[in-house]
């Protein structure tokens, strides 16, 4: 077996300790060689919990470690640009949490830095790696629901009571579009296999939450008159749904963005009948780790290199539309 990819974890956020780190340890392709935090006490505790050999009290020390091949960055959104670029300059491959940046200009700078350094950069949209996504795309490609007409996507939860949450810090890239709206937006681009032409978005900007968008809903227009209708929020009842509508049927995905094993099924509606499709179950974080390692080894990445730039362009345009309360062409 080829040598496993040696990961360094840059930060001890919950998404790292609860999901990504266990997945890397479960993967066939990777091991966690070190973990870093802004203080040695925290990183040492996490290293002990996961049985990791090295703990660092700064991110600089992690990047200086020659035994690290790749880093995972789960830092707050406003820190992504700096540390992705510094990791690239240190010769590390980078998996960075979504959204990758605060805007498309930052994302373009990060992609360019990684390209120049010859390292692989991926944005951590784990749901894209779940095997049922490929199964869903196959159904669409076979024409089982006819020609695509519309996609409807929702992702909401209610955490408004915790006003200290970093998701409610405007300068740090807070807000529902950055946090959960990015999922239906990225999914529509993926399933339509096209880039949007215009957006119209309305949002609730809350003074209690540093004026971030706590709820947003909108229309994203794609070529050929097809569209995404979406809503997202951090101040609404918990729900997820993705519906893909065609001329001859529709596909309903009840848990589109964080399904694993028992909730991977979706429903195909055609010919007046509803059929439950028992999609392949998996931990998408494990598949994400293995697909990342494969790309580092030379396999074609599942997502194009410039995808983070295009996705950030859409997110920032949605925010701009909400603030200006008008339709904006991309």
UniProtKB/TrEMBL annotation:
Which key words tag this protein in UniProt? Oxidoreductase
The record's annotation in SUPFAM superfamilies points to:
Glyceraldehyde-3-phosphate dehydrogenase-like, C-terminal domain (SSF55347), NAD(P)-binding Rossmann-fold domains (SSF51735)
Q: Where is the GFO/IDH/MocA-like oxidoreductase domain?
A: 134-252
Report any Pfam family annotated for this entry: GFO_IDH_MocA_C3
Instruction: Look up keyword Endoplasmic reticulum and say if it applies.
Output: no
Q: Does the keyword Oxidoreductase apply?
A: yes
User: Where do the Gfo/Idh/MocA-like oxidoreductase N-terminal domain residues begin and end?
Assistant: 5-123
Q: Which domain of life is it from?
A: Bacteria
What family does the database annotate? Belongs to the Gfo/Idh/MocA family.
Q: Under what name is this protein listed?
A: Oxidoreductase
Organism of provenance: Paenibacillus borealis
């Amino acid at each position: 077996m080829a040598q496993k990819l040696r990961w360094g974890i840059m930060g001890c956020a919950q998404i790292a300790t609860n999901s990504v780190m266990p997945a890397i340890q479960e993967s066939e392709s990777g091991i966690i060689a070190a973990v870093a935090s802004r203080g040695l006490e925290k990183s040492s505790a996490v290293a002990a919990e996961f049985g990791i050999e090295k703990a660092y009290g700064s991110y600089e020390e992690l990047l200086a470690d020659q035994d690290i091949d790749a880093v995972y960055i789960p830092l707050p959104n406003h820190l992504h640009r700096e540390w992705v670029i510094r990791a690239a300059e240190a010769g590390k491959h980078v998996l960075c949490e979504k959204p990758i940046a605060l805007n498309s200009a930052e994302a373009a700078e990060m992609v360019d830095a990684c390209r120049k350094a010859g390292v692989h950069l991926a944005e951590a949209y784990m749901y894209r790696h779940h095997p049922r996504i490929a199964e869903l795309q196959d159904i669409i490609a076979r024409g089982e629901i006819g020609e695509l007409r519309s996609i409807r996507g929702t992702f909401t939860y209610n955490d408004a009571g915790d006003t200290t949450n970093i998701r409610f810090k405007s300068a740090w890239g807070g807000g529902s579009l950055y946090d959960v709206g990015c999922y239906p937006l990225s999914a529509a681009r993926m399933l339509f296999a096209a880039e949007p032409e215009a957006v119209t978005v309305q949002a609730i900007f809350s003074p209690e939450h540093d004026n971030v968008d706590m709820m947003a809903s909108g229309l994203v227009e794609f070529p050929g008159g097809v569209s995404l209708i979406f809503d997202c929020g951090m101040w609404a009842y918990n729900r997820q749904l993705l519906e893909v509508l065609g001329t001859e049927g529709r596909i309903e995905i009840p848990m589109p963005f964080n399904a694993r094993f028992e909730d991977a099924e979706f429903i195909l509606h055609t010919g007046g009948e509803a059929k439950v499709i028992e999609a392949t179950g998996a931990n998408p974080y494990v598949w994400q780790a293995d697909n990342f390692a494969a790309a580092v080894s030379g396999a074609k990445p599942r997502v194009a290199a410039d995808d983070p730039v295009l996705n950030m362009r859409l997110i920032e345009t949605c925010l701009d539309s909400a603030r200006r309360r008008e339709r904006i062409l991309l």
